[in-house]
Amino acid sequence: RKEVEQDPGPFNVPEGATVAFNCTYSNSASQSFFWYRQDCRKEPKLLMSVYSSGNEDGRFTAQLNRASQYISLLIRDSKLSDSATYLCAFKPPYGGSQGNLIFGKGTKLSVKP
Amino acid sequence: GAGVSQSPSNKVTEKGKDVELRCDPISGHTALYWYRQSLGQGLEFLIYFQGNSAPDKSGLPSDRFSAERTGGSVSTLTIQRTQQEDSAVYLCASSPGLTNTGELFFGEGSRLTVL
């Protein structure tokens, strides 16, 4: 099983739709999970951290399911500007509190008028 | 600017040549990372520097790849005897290190094309 897996998409949704992405990870001891957003030909930027209790930021909700080893990102009321690639990332346990992030290949979202 | 600065933004080279890519992290950030991203692929970790500690080189794909970080600031990624499969966008990122919340601040990348 790969360290991290994401459905590459593309997810083509109309404006106003609700869309959800999952990201599975293989190492159950992994800590610290994140969602990054990457616009076309741009650098990735942190969208939000994923806390054990789940967290919400406006139209975006991130959740962690440790039992099934996945994180999710829910986008409500999609906007055209949400079109981007969404990368999940996590800190591997062998890195301790520091060290690199492992990134998924990303899920491409395209929001249509 | 106040962000991570990378140069060159684009580099076209011939197979077998050496290339150097430069990264200037955000001032005060002690952690510096190199990733590469090939077309349609995710971010592949290459190397990580944290302060004065020995770098984590576990992601370097071959001994043709090396990186240095001088004075705890600017870093150079060197690829020797480039191959066509080295073509990718090389992204540098920095973070505050010990106070890291997990947010990496990326530069715009250096797009390398090996002919």
What does this structure look like?
The complex is a heterodimer of chains A (113) and B (115). Chain A is mainly beta and 113 residues long. Helix content of chain A is 0%, strand content 52%. Chain A is built from no helices and eleven strands. Chain A has strands at 4-6, 11-14, 19-25, 31-38, 45-50, 55-57, 60-65, 70-75, 84-91, 102-103, 107-112. In chain A, strands 2, 4, 5, 9, 10 and 11 form a six-stranded mixed β-sheet that branches. The N and C termini of chain A lie far apart (37 Å). The mean pLDDT of chain A is 90. Chain B is mostly beta strands and 115 residues long. In chain B, 0% of the residues lie in helices and 46% in strands. Chain B has no helices and ten strands. In chain B, a hairpin with a 5-residue loop joins strand 4 (31-37) and strand 5 (43-50). The termini of chain B are far apart. The model of chain B has no long low-confidence stretch (mean pLDDT 92). Chains A and B meet through strand 5, strand 9 and strand 10 of A and strand 4 and strand 5 of B.
Q: Topology, please?
A:
The complex is a heterodimer of chains A (113) and B (115).
Chain A: E1 4-6, E2 11-14, E3 19-25, E4 31-38, E5 45-50, E6 55-57, E7 60-65, E8 70-75, E9 84-91, E10 102-103, E11 107-112
Parallel strand pairs in A: 2-11
Antiparallel strand pairs in A: 1-3, 3-8, 4-5, 4-9, 6-7, 7-8, 9-10, 9-11
Chain B: E1 5-7, E2 10-13, E3 19-24, E4 31-37, E5 43-50, E6 65-69, E7 75-79, E8 88-95, E9 105-106, E10 110-114
Parallel strand pairs in B: 2-10
Antiparallel strand pairs in B: 1-3, 3-7, 4-5, 4-8, 6-7, 8-9, 8-10
